[in-house]
Amino acid sequence: MAEYLSFGEIMLRLKTPGHERFFQSPAFEATFGGGEANVAVALSNYGLSAGFVTALPDNDIGASAIGELRRFGVDTTQIRRSGDRVGIYYLEAGANQRPSKVVYDRKHSAISECRPGDFDWKTIFDGKKWLHITGITPALSQSAADLSIECVQQAKKAGVAVSCDFNYRGKLWKYGKSAPEVMSELVKHVDVGIANEEDCQKSLGISADVDVETGELDTGKYEALSEKVLELYPDMSTIAITLRESHSADRNGWSACLRTRDKGFMLSRHYEITNIVDRVGGGDSFASALIYGLNAYDDPQQSLEFAVAGSCLKHSILGDFNRVSVTEVEKLMGGDGSGRVQR
Protein backbone atom coordinates (compact mmCIF):
# COMPACT_ATOMS: atom_id res chain seq x y z
CA MET A 1 0.00 0.00 0.00
CA ALA A 2 1.36 3.40 -1.00
CA GLU A 3 2.18 5.76 1.89
CA TYR A 4 2.84 8.83 -0.27
CA LEU A 5 0.10 10.05 -2.62
CA SER A 6 -0.16 12.77 -5.20
CA PHE A 7 -3.44 13.99 -6.66
CA GLY A 8 -3.85 15.70 -10.03
CA GLU A 9 -3.67 15.06 -13.76
CA ILE A 10 -1.38 13.03 -15.97
CA MET A 11 -1.33 14.26 -19.57
CA LEU A 12 -0.17 13.15 -22.96
CA ARG A 13 2.97 15.20 -23.70
CA LEU A 14 3.57 15.97 -27.39
CA LYS A 15 6.99 17.56 -27.92
CA THR A 16 8.60 18.72 -31.13
CA PRO A 17 11.77 16.81 -32.07
CA GLY A 18 14.95 18.40 -30.73
CA HIS A 19 14.55 22.16 -30.70
CA GLU A 20 12.20 22.39 -33.70
CA ARG A 21 9.29 24.84 -33.87
CA PHE A 22 5.73 23.52 -33.89
CA PHE A 23 5.14 21.55 -37.11
CA GLN A 24 8.57 22.37 -38.47
CA SER A 25 8.48 18.64 -39.22
CA PRO A 26 5.31 16.49 -39.16
CA ALA A 27 6.24 14.68 -35.95
CA PHE A 28 5.86 14.84 -32.20
CA GLU A 29 7.55 12.82 -29.46
CA ALA A 30 4.69 11.30 -27.45
CA THR A 31 5.23 10.61 -23.74
CA PHE A 32 3.28 11.26 -20.53
CA GLY A 33 3.74 13.86 -17.83
CA GLY A 34 2.13 16.37 -15.53
CA GLY A 35 3.12 18.01 -12.26
CA GLU A 36 1.54 15.65 -9.75
CA ALA A 37 2.31 12.50 -11.75
CA ASN A 38 5.92 13.64 -12.02
CA VAL A 39 6.11 13.82 -8.23
CA ALA A 40 4.69 10.32 -7.78
CA VAL A 41 7.21 8.84 -10.24
CA ALA A 42 10.16 10.58 -8.60
CA LEU A 43 9.11 9.48 -5.11
CA SER A 44 8.90 5.91 -6.35
CA ASN A 45 12.36 6.25 -7.91
CA TYR A 46 13.64 7.36 -4.50
CA GLY A 47 12.38 4.11 -3.03
CA LEU A 48 9.24 5.44 -1.34
CA SER A 49 5.87 3.71 -1.67
CA ALA A 50 4.09 6.19 -3.94
CA GLY A 51 0.61 6.28 -5.44
CA PHE A 52 -1.24 8.55 -7.84
CA VAL A 53 -4.90 9.60 -7.63
CA THR A 54 -6.63 10.92 -10.73
CA ALA A 55 -9.33 10.18 -13.28
CA LEU A 56 -8.64 8.75 -16.72
CA PRO A 57 -10.99 7.59 -19.48
CA ASP A 58 -11.55 3.88 -19.94
CA ASN A 59 -9.85 3.72 -23.32
CA ASP A 60 -6.45 2.79 -24.74
CA ILE A 61 -4.85 6.18 -24.05
CA GLY A 62 -5.97 6.13 -20.43
CA ALA A 63 -4.71 2.56 -20.10
CA SER A 64 -1.36 3.56 -21.58
CA ALA A 65 -0.99 6.40 -19.06
CA ILE A 66 -1.69 3.96 -16.22
CA GLY A 67 0.79 1.49 -17.68
CA GLU A 68 3.48 4.16 -17.76
CA LEU A 69 2.95 4.95 -14.09
CA ARG A 70 3.05 1.28 -13.18
CA ARG A 71 6.34 0.92 -15.04
CA PHE A 72 7.90 3.17 -12.40
CA GLY A 73 6.29 1.30 -9.52
CA VAL A 74 3.57 3.86 -8.83
CA ASP A 75 0.39 2.48 -7.24
CA THR A 76 -2.53 3.19 -9.60
CA THR A 77 -5.29 1.38 -7.73
CA GLN A 78 -7.03 4.63 -6.75
CA ILE A 79 -7.30 5.96 -10.31
CA ARG A 80 -10.92 6.54 -11.28
CA ARG A 81 -11.91 5.42 -14.80
CA SER A 82 -14.28 8.08 -16.06
CA GLY A 83 -14.62 10.82 -18.65
CA ASP A 84 -13.76 10.90 -22.33
CA ARG A 85 -10.44 12.73 -22.61
CA VAL A 86 -6.83 12.56 -21.48
CA GLY A 87 -5.45 16.09 -21.20
CA ILE A 88 -2.73 17.03 -23.69
CA TYR A 89 0.07 19.54 -23.67
CA TYR A 90 2.25 20.49 -26.61
CA LEU A 91 5.85 21.50 -25.95
CA GLU A 92 8.24 23.43 -28.15
CA ALA A 93 11.72 23.38 -26.61
CA GLY A 94 13.50 26.72 -26.69
CA ALA A 95 17.18 27.39 -27.20
CA ASN A 96 19.48 30.28 -26.35
CA GLN A 97 17.33 33.43 -26.26
CA ARG A 98 14.20 31.70 -27.65
CA PRO A 99 12.02 30.49 -24.77
CA SER A 100 10.20 27.19 -24.63
CA LYS A 101 6.46 27.26 -25.30
CA VAL A 102 3.60 25.20 -23.90
CA VAL A 103 0.14 24.94 -25.45
CA TYR A 104 -2.55 23.23 -23.33
CA ASP A 105 -5.44 21.13 -24.59
CA ARG A 106 -7.04 20.18 -21.29
CA LYS A 107 -10.66 21.35 -21.43
CA HIS A 108 -13.13 18.59 -20.59
CA SER A 109 -10.36 16.19 -19.56
CA ALA A 110 -11.44 13.43 -17.20
CA ILE A 111 -10.14 15.03 -13.99
CA SER A 112 -11.45 18.49 -14.90
CA GLU A 113 -14.99 17.08 -15.01
CA CYS A 114 -14.76 15.34 -11.63
CA ARG A 115 -16.38 16.94 -8.62
CA PRO A 116 -16.63 16.56 -4.84
CA GLY A 117 -17.96 13.16 -3.85
CA ASP A 118 -16.42 11.33 -6.81
CA PHE A 119 -13.55 9.90 -4.73
CA ASP A 120 -13.77 7.84 -1.55
CA TRP A 121 -11.22 9.85 0.44
CA LYS A 122 -11.73 7.86 3.63
CA THR A 123 -10.53 4.71 1.87
CA ILE A 124 -7.87 6.54 -0.16
CA PHE A 125 -6.25 8.16 2.90
CA ASP A 126 -6.47 5.14 5.18
CA GLY A 127 -2.93 4.35 6.35
CA LYS A 128 -1.37 7.13 4.28
CA LYS A 129 1.41 9.43 5.43
CA TRP A 130 1.62 12.23 2.85
CA LEU A 131 -0.43 13.94 0.13
CA HIS A 132 1.00 16.19 -2.56
CA ILE A 133 -1.16 18.52 -4.61
CA THR A 134 -0.53 21.56 -6.81
CA GLY A 135 -2.20 24.75 -7.96
CA ILE A 136 -2.61 23.30 -11.45
CA THR A 137 -5.64 21.03 -10.96
CA PRO A 138 -7.70 23.78 -9.25
CA ALA A 139 -7.09 25.94 -12.32
CA LEU A 140 -8.81 23.51 -14.69
CA SER A 141 -12.46 24.05 -13.74
CA GLN A 142 -14.72 25.05 -10.87
CA SER A 143 -15.53 21.42 -10.14
CA ALA A 144 -11.83 20.49 -10.10
CA ALA A 145 -11.15 23.38 -7.72
CA ASP A 146 -13.93 22.24 -5.39
CA LEU A 147 -12.61 18.68 -5.58
CA SER A 148 -9.05 19.82 -4.78
CA ILE A 149 -10.22 21.66 -1.69
CA GLU A 150 -12.23 18.63 -0.61
CA CYS A 151 -9.12 16.50 -1.11
CA VAL A 152 -6.90 18.54 1.21
CA GLN A 153 -9.64 18.94 3.80
CA GLN A 154 -10.15 15.18 3.95
CA ALA A 155 -6.39 14.57 4.06
CA LYS A 156 -6.04 16.80 7.12
CA LYS A 157 -9.06 15.13 8.71
CA ALA A 158 -7.31 11.77 8.23
CA GLY A 159 -4.08 13.06 9.80
CA VAL A 160 -2.16 13.05 6.50
CA ALA A 161 0.58 15.66 5.97
CA VAL A 162 -0.11 17.89 2.95
CA SER A 163 2.38 19.55 0.63
CA CYS A 164 1.33 21.91 -2.14
CA ASP A 165 3.29 23.39 -5.01
CA PHE A 166 1.45 26.65 -5.68
CA ASN A 167 2.20 26.38 -9.44
CA TYR A 168 0.61 29.41 -11.11
CA ARG A 169 -0.47 28.66 -14.71
CA GLY A 170 -1.95 31.80 -16.24
CA LYS A 171 -3.14 29.98 -19.36
CA LEU A 172 -5.44 27.75 -17.29
CA TRP A 173 -7.36 30.13 -15.01
CA LYS A 174 -10.22 30.77 -17.46
CA TYR A 175 -13.45 29.65 -15.75
CA GLY A 176 -14.23 32.84 -13.83
CA LYS A 177 -12.29 32.48 -10.58
CA SER A 178 -8.90 34.02 -9.95
CA ALA A 179 -6.06 31.93 -8.58
CA PRO A 180 -5.95 33.73 -5.20
CA GLU A 181 -9.70 33.20 -4.68
CA VAL A 182 -9.24 29.43 -4.86
CA MET A 183 -5.67 28.90 -3.67
CA SER A 184 -5.95 31.02 -0.54
CA GLU A 185 -8.63 28.60 0.68
CA LEU A 186 -6.76 25.45 -0.36
CA VAL A 187 -3.46 26.55 1.20
CA LYS A 188 -5.12 26.95 4.61
CA HIS A 189 -4.87 23.16 4.86
CA VAL A 190 -1.22 22.84 3.73
CA ASP A 191 1.71 21.87 5.96
CA VAL A 192 4.54 22.33 3.43
CA GLY A 193 4.30 25.04 0.78
CA ILE A 194 6.45 25.00 -2.34
CA ALA A 195 6.67 27.86 -4.80
CA ASN A 196 8.70 30.21 -6.87
CA GLU A 197 8.42 33.96 -6.47
CA GLU A 198 5.78 34.26 -9.22
CA ASP A 199 3.63 31.57 -7.58
CA CYS A 200 3.55 33.46 -4.29
CA GLN A 201 2.45 36.64 -6.00
CA LYS A 202 -0.01 35.31 -8.57
CA SER A 203 -1.38 32.19 -6.86
CA LEU A 204 -1.75 33.65 -3.37
CA GLY A 205 -1.92 37.36 -4.19
CA ILE A 206 1.01 38.13 -1.89
CA SER A 207 2.77 41.28 -3.00
CA ALA A 208 6.53 40.97 -3.14
CA ASP A 209 9.24 43.31 -4.35
CA VAL A 210 10.80 40.73 -6.67
CA ASP A 211 10.98 40.61 -10.46
CA VAL A 212 10.97 37.23 -12.22
CA GLU A 213 12.07 38.69 -15.56
CA THR A 214 15.45 40.18 -14.65
CA GLY A 215 17.30 36.95 -13.90
CA GLU A 216 18.82 38.64 -10.84
CA LEU A 217 18.01 37.55 -7.31
CA ASP A 218 18.05 39.46 -4.04
CA THR A 219 17.93 36.76 -1.37
CA GLY A 220 16.99 39.28 1.31
CA LYS A 221 13.67 39.84 -0.45
CA TYR A 222 12.99 36.10 -0.51
CA GLU A 223 13.69 35.88 3.20
CA ALA A 224 11.00 38.50 3.77
CA LEU A 225 8.65 36.77 1.33
CA SER A 226 8.97 33.40 3.10
CA GLU A 227 8.28 35.06 6.45
CA LYS A 228 5.18 36.72 5.03
CA VAL A 229 3.78 33.42 3.72
CA LEU A 230 4.09 31.76 7.13
CA GLU A 231 2.53 34.76 8.82
CA LEU A 232 -0.52 34.58 6.54
CA TYR A 233 -0.91 30.80 6.84
CA PRO A 234 -0.42 29.89 10.52
CA ASP A 235 -0.98 26.15 9.98
CA MET A 236 1.87 25.93 7.47
CA SER A 237 5.08 24.70 9.07
CA THR A 238 7.46 25.05 6.12
CA ILE A 239 7.76 27.12 2.96
CA ALA A 240 10.33 26.45 0.23
CA ILE A 241 10.94 28.87 -2.63
CA THR A 242 12.98 27.94 -5.70
CA LEU A 243 15.33 30.61 -7.04
CA ARG A 244 15.92 30.43 -10.78
CA GLU A 245 18.22 32.87 -12.60
CA SER A 246 17.18 32.50 -16.23
CA HIS A 247 20.11 33.75 -18.30
CA SER A 248 18.83 31.97 -21.42
CA ALA A 249 16.83 28.86 -22.34
CA ASP A 250 20.05 26.85 -22.08
CA ARG A 251 21.67 28.39 -19.00
CA ASN A 252 20.06 28.89 -15.60
CA GLY A 253 21.31 29.54 -12.11
CA TRP A 254 19.51 27.26 -9.65
CA SER A 255 19.11 27.37 -5.87
CA ALA A 256 16.36 27.59 -3.26
CA CYS A 257 15.52 28.84 0.19
CA LEU A 258 13.54 27.28 3.00
CA ARG A 259 11.90 28.62 6.12
CA THR A 260 10.56 26.55 8.99
CA ARG A 261 8.86 27.89 12.08
CA ASP A 262 11.40 26.36 14.46
CA LYS A 263 14.65 26.56 12.44
CA GLY A 264 14.17 29.84 10.60
CA PHE A 265 15.48 30.79 7.15
CA MET A 266 18.15 28.96 5.15
CA LEU A 267 19.67 29.09 1.68
CA SER A 268 20.92 26.23 -0.44
CA ARG A 269 24.04 25.77 -2.48
CA HIS A 270 23.90 27.47 -5.90
CA TYR A 271 24.24 25.49 -9.15
CA GLU A 272 25.07 26.98 -12.53
CA ILE A 273 23.26 24.76 -15.05
CA THR A 274 24.48 25.04 -18.63
CA ASN A 275 23.36 23.18 -21.76
CA ILE A 276 19.93 22.38 -20.30
CA VAL A 277 18.41 19.25 -21.82
CA ASP A 278 14.84 19.76 -20.53
CA ARG A 279 13.73 22.11 -17.77
CA VAL A 280 10.06 21.05 -17.88
CA GLY A 281 9.35 19.23 -14.63
CA GLY A 282 12.14 21.05 -12.80
CA GLY A 283 9.79 22.36 -10.13
CA ASP A 284 8.15 18.95 -9.72
CA SER A 285 11.57 17.37 -9.27
CA PHE A 286 12.30 19.91 -6.53
CA ALA A 287 8.99 19.15 -4.81
CA SER A 288 9.48 15.39 -4.86
CA ALA A 289 13.08 15.63 -3.64
CA LEU A 290 12.00 17.99 -0.86
CA ILE A 291 9.30 15.55 0.25
CA TYR A 292 11.89 12.78 0.30
CA GLY A 293 14.39 14.96 2.17
CA LEU A 294 11.94 16.09 4.83
CA ASN A 295 11.11 12.46 5.56
CA ALA A 296 14.65 11.07 5.31
CA TYR A 297 16.78 13.67 7.13
CA ASP A 298 16.48 15.33 10.53
CA ASP A 299 18.20 18.52 9.34
CA PRO A 300 16.01 20.77 7.14
CA GLN A 301 19.15 22.23 5.55
CA GLN A 302 20.05 18.77 4.32
CA SER A 303 16.50 18.29 3.04
CA LEU A 304 16.81 21.55 1.12
CA GLU A 305 20.17 20.55 -0.37
CA PHE A 306 18.73 17.20 -1.50
CA ALA A 307 15.82 19.01 -3.18
CA VAL A 308 18.05 21.44 -5.05
CA ALA A 309 20.50 18.75 -6.14
CA GLY A 310 17.71 16.44 -7.29
CA SER A 311 16.09 19.15 -9.36
CA CYS A 312 19.47 20.25 -10.72
CA LEU A 313 19.93 16.74 -12.14
CA LYS A 314 16.46 16.83 -13.73
CA HIS A 315 17.66 19.54 -16.11
CA SER A 316 19.87 16.88 -17.73
CA ILE A 317 17.01 14.46 -18.41
CA LEU A 318 14.60 14.56 -21.35
CA GLY A 319 10.94 14.18 -20.48
CA ASP A 320 8.75 15.17 -17.54
CA PHE A 321 9.95 12.46 -15.17
CA ASN A 322 13.06 12.81 -13.01
CA ARG A 323 14.79 9.47 -13.52
CA VAL A 324 17.43 9.69 -10.80
CA SER A 325 18.20 7.72 -7.64
CA VAL A 326 18.92 8.78 -4.08
CA THR A 327 22.56 7.72 -4.54
CA GLU A 328 22.97 10.00 -7.58
CA VAL A 329 21.43 12.98 -5.78
CA GLU A 330 23.51 12.47 -2.65
CA LYS A 331 26.64 12.23 -4.79
CA LEU A 332 25.93 15.66 -6.25
CA MET A 333 25.10 16.96 -2.77
CA GLY A 334 28.56 15.78 -1.73
CA GLY A 335 30.18 17.95 -4.37
CA ASP A 336 30.70 15.51 -7.23
CA GLY A 337 29.31 17.34 -10.24
CA SER A 338 32.14 16.52 -12.61
CA GLY A 339 30.04 14.44 -15.01
CA ARG A 340 32.94 12.00 -15.44
CA VAL A 341 32.12 8.67 -17.03
CA GLN A 342 31.46 6.02 -14.40
CA ARG A 343 33.15 2.73 -15.38
Salient structural properties:
single chain; 343 residues; alpha/beta; four-stranded mixed β-sheet; 10 helices; 32% helix
Tell me the Rg in angstroms: 19 Å
DSSP summary: helix tally: 10
Strand/helix succession: EEEHEEHEEEHEHEHEHHEEEEHHH
Largest sheet: 9 strands, mixed
Q: How much helical structure, as a percent, in the residues?
A: 25-40%
Structural class: alpha/beta
**What is the overall shape?**
globular
Alpha-carbon distance between the two ends: 37 Å
Mean pLDDT: 94
User: Strand content of the residues, in percent?
Assistant: 15-25%
Number of strands: 15
Q: What would your notes on this structure say?
A:
With 343 residues, the protein is α/β, with parallel strands linked by helices. Helices cover 32% and strands 21% of the residues. It has ten helices and 15 strands. It has helices spanning 35-45, 60-71, 121-124, 142-157, 179-186, 197-204, 219-232, 282-296, 300-314, 326-333; strands at residues 4-7, 11-15, 29-33, 50-53, 55-56, 80-81, 88-92, 101-105, 130-134, 161-165, 192-196, 238-246, 252-260, 264-267, 271-273. The strands form three sheets. Strands 1, 4, 9, 10, 11, 12, 13, 14 and 15 form a nine-stranded mixed sheet that branches. Strands 3-2-7-8 form a four-stranded mixed sheet. The longest helix is centred in the middle third of the chain and has 16 residues, at 142-157. It starts with a strand and ends in a 10-residue tail after the last helix. The mean pLDDT is 94.
